[in-house]
Design brief:
The protein contains 17 helices and 14 strands. By secondary structure, the protein is an alpha/beta fold. The protein binds adenosine monophosphate.
Amino acid sequence: MPFTSLGLSPALLRAVAASSYTTPTPIQIAAIPAALQGRDVLGSAQTGSGKTAAFVLPILQALEGSMPSRARAQRVVQALILVPTRELAAQVGETIRSLAQHLPHPPHLASALKVTIVFGGVSINPQMLGLRGGTDIVVATPGRLLDLIDHNAVELGNVKTLVLDEADRLFDLGFADELKRILTLLPTARQNLFFSATFPPAVEQLANTLLHDPVRVVIPREPLGSLGEPDITQRAIAVDAPRRTQLLRHLIEQHAWQRVLVFVATKHAAEIVAEKLRKARINAEPFHGELSQGKRTQVLADFKASRLKVVVATDVASRGLDIAELPVVVNFDLPRSEVDYVHRIGRTGRAGETGLALSFVSAATEAHFYLIQKRQRIDLILEHIEAFEPTEVAPDRGPAGGGIKGHRPNKKDKLRAAAALTQPIPLT
Ligand code: AMP
C-alpha cells in the first residue's frame, strides 16, 4: 500500500517523500487512517516499527487543517506527547520538526507550528522561556511537565490529542502518579493515541480507562525480518564472567565492528568496561543516568557521527534511542527481564536494516538466560568461541537450582533457579 492511500495531505506526502520513506510500515498503514478520522488508537509496537511517524503525521494534519483560524490567535497546546526519557523526547521532537517543515505557513509566521520539548535533568528556565507566547505541540517527560504546569508556564486545557509513547516504560520508570495528575488536567473530549511495546496489567488498565472504542493495532514482535520490521540475528556466547571484556575486545577486532552498543547492569560497570576498552585503544564511553545531560548528548552525537566505536550503557539507553544503522548490540550483563531484552536488542536492526544482538552468558547467569529465552519463545544455542571456552561451574543455588546431585540440571531446574534470581550478577 502506498502512502498516497492513507489520506494524508499533499504537504505531508511531500514531507514523507523528503524523509525517504517509500512505503508505509504496518503500524503506519493501520494507525494513520484511523487517527486521521479522529479515532483513538491502541498500538502495540516496538521502537523501530515506524510508530513515531504513525502518530506525528495525523497530528500535523490536524494542525494543518486548523491553521487559518490559529494564525490569528495565540498558540495554545493542541497536542501533548508524553514519553519516558529525555532522549526519546528529543527524537520525537526531531521527527516532528523534520516532517513539519513542509507544511504551508502564514506569511507573518516564521513556521507553521511551534514544537516545544521539555524534560527533566536540565535547568527549567530555558524551557519556561521556550513556552512563552504559547506553543502548538509539547513533547514532554511527565515530571518536568508537571513542574512547568506548577510554574504556570504551560496550560493543557485545549489539548485535542494526547499521545502516550512507550507507556510500559512510563510505568517502569515510576511515572504512574505523574501520569494520573496530568490526565486530570486534560479536556475529557480529546483523541488518545496510546503506544506500548508490552501490556503489563497497569498499562492494560490505563488503556481500558483512557481509550474510547480504540482501533487496535497489534504489530507482532515475531517473525522478525518481515517488511518494515527489524531483522535481528540473535546469538548467545558462553563465557566466564571475568573474561567478558577480553572477549568483547576480541570480537570487535575480529569482526572490525565500527559501532557497538554494549549493555551492562550498573553505572559502575559502564565506567569500568569503557575504561578497560579505552586502555586497549578502543574508543569507548560510558552512558548512564548519572552523567550530565550535556555529556549524554555529546556521547550520543559522537556515537552517531562514528567518532566513538563503543558506548557502554545501562538500561537508561535501551529505550527510544534511534541510531541509524547500529549493527551490533551486546548484552555484556544480561537484562533483568525479557521486556528489557526486547528493548535492548531493538537498538539494532532498525527499519529494514539487519542487526546482530549478542548475549554473553556465564555459568551464573545461564539459568536466567533460559528464562528470558523461554518467555521470548526463542531457543538459542550457547556458542563457544575458541580460546574463550568457559570453565566456570554454576554456583549451587540450593534445592531450587541444583537439580539431582551428580546430574547436569535440566531446563526445568534452570528455569526454577532463574525464577529465584532477580538481579543480574554484578561485574567481576
Ligand atoms: P520509530 O519506530 O518511530 O522509532 O522509527 C524507526 C525508524 O524508522 C526511524 O529512523 C524512522 O525515520 C524510520 N521510518 C519511519 N517510517 C518509515 C517508513 N515508512 N519507511 C522507512 N523508514 C521509516
